[in-house]
Amino acid sequence: MQRAIHPILTCAEARLLEEAYLAGDEGREWKVMQKAARGVAAGVLRDFEEIGGMPAAARVLVLAGKGNNGGDALLAAAELLARCQQIEVEVVFVFGERGLRPLAERAWRELSAALGPRVRPVKESSLAGAYDLCLDGVFGYQFRAPLSTEVGELLAKVNGLRVRLRAAIDLPSGLDDAAAFRADFSYATGSFKAPLFTLPNAGRLRLVELGFPATSQSIIDKVLDAGVLDSLRELRPSQCEKRTFGHLLVVAGSRWYPGAALMAVSAALRSGVGLVTAAVPQSLVKSFAARVPEVMWLGLPETSAGDLAGEGIGPLRAALARATAALIGPGLGRSRDTMGLALQFVKGSPVPLVIDADALQAEIVAAGTEPRILTPHAGEYERIRQRITPASIVVRKGPLTRIETGVGGAAEVSVFGGPVLARGGSGDLLAGLTAGLLAQTPDDPAGAAARGLVWHGLAADAMARQHGQVAIHTTQLLEFLGPVLRE
Hints:
single chain, Rossmann fold, UDP-N-acetylmuramoyl-L-alanine:D-glutamate ligase
């Protein structure tokens, strides 16, 4: 299945692309600048919702360079006036007002006309106090290091100010210089540029679509788009029944980690899968069945410590015969009995698998022949990387989660989600959601991994916009899986 993706361009590729698209037409360039400004403003307002929304009387600082990035920042400030009609804008012309190029100067005139007395140029020396928003439009992708002393001092001072949301337009000015702009969000205009994916000061990434027909020759990594979920937004066939949408077998849980199994199963149910069987320690079945009655709970023999015992392999093999995909790992624990059971399970599985958490052991991930999706965080990845097979789909979890085939292959990157996911249980939800999707499309493990990752991230973004990043619990994310499909 074709996945919705955006190429990651080198800065040189981005320059050639824009030059070809704009063809030296200043009128077209102005329209693109206006479109970029609308996209940046809309993105800022949307992302501000994670910290309570942008105040109507916000204090905004604009760092304006001489070229198009400066023009984008100035026009974005003017766009914000439409919804926040009491904002006050301070503009630092980093290279002087007289240094503005024609389109940036035109943008400054528009901002001045829109805000009148509520916009004023300021000097670096007068920057003080707290700001709600800082728009960094000093340099774009054509910046060449190093920073000049004067610009470095300005950016260092801005980095030291109290600012609620710091937004870089296209790339944070100064790139990886010690004094470079420290962004909370970078709004990539027209295309994603490669430096964004290695800079620790780029913050979270957003794409502002400008209609460029982007292609890439030198960069093989790509960014997943929300359109990857389009197949889940369509009407389901009227002539269907529960087996039409797959049967997932989940092997998870222990006396010490019961919640992981419950979270993975709950997420799987939200994936649209037709049937879920969950194999857990026998002692957990009664309470789990009362909480999630839709699942067929299979109680397995357990050790005295409450882990799954090796003799459970017989019932598991019988359950596998009815499944279209399986998930193993969340909350299993690492006892010798349980790891032996997991190895036998994976080795003999006739269906594709998601292998997660405690089951991410070198011997286990290399066992068997069926396709598998592995979902390691950084530490787990280092533990298993030497045994990852070339056909494995690897979901490498992190601030920017990457989907790779094998080790070090071309990656599809997700920019969705964020700090709200930095809490226990997020990975269990991702594993369950992905496995439920795999059960529906067992012949497309790469597609299931992409859909699971994007869906999980979009739901996290929506949750943070409604509830903030702090005072939530992980399973609230489940309530946002449905709404993001309907956007």
